[in-house]
Amino acid sequence: MIWISSGALLIIFFSFRAYINNRKDFQKKIIRDQYSRIYFYLLQGTNIVLIISGLLFLMLAIVSHVNGFEVVFSSEYDYHLKLNGS
Questions:
Q1: What whole-number distance in Å separates Cα of residue 73 and Cα of residue 78?
Q2: For 30-78, what is each residue's pLDDT tens digit?
Q3: Cβ-count burial of 70 within 10 angstroms (0-12 exposed, 13-18 middle, 19+ buried)?
Q4: How confident is the model at residue 82 (pLDDT cuts 50, 70, 90)?
Q5: Three-state SS for 82?
Q6: Which 3 state secondary structure label does DSSP give 34?
Q7: Residue 14's closest CA among 47, 40, 45?
Q8: How far apart are CA 15 and CA 48, in angstroms?
Q9: Which helix (H) or strand (E) covers residue 15, if one does?
Q10: Phi and psi at residue 28, in whole multiples of 5°?
Q11: Nearest to 22 by CA among 46, 42, 40
């Protein structure tokens, strides 16, 4: 769970930082002169989606840790589930 939570925190931090930087650059007319508003809104929308996904992964890590579950990303997990279910 430590890897999921640390990865989620990194995603949240860098996405929020990119969101703030893009907004400041747009206010300074750096992006406004080079690109259209659609590009700016696409960047900001992508950053918001990344922030939300990072928060969801962080909540997954916290809930899994509190409830004692372990998230295993492996093909062996299905094999062990079949063994335990039989």
A1: 10
A2: 666 666 778 888 889 999 999 999 999 888 888 877 776 666 556 666 6
A3: exposed
A4: low
A5: helix
A6: helix
A7: 47
A8: 7
A9: helix 2-27
A10: -85, 0
A11: 40
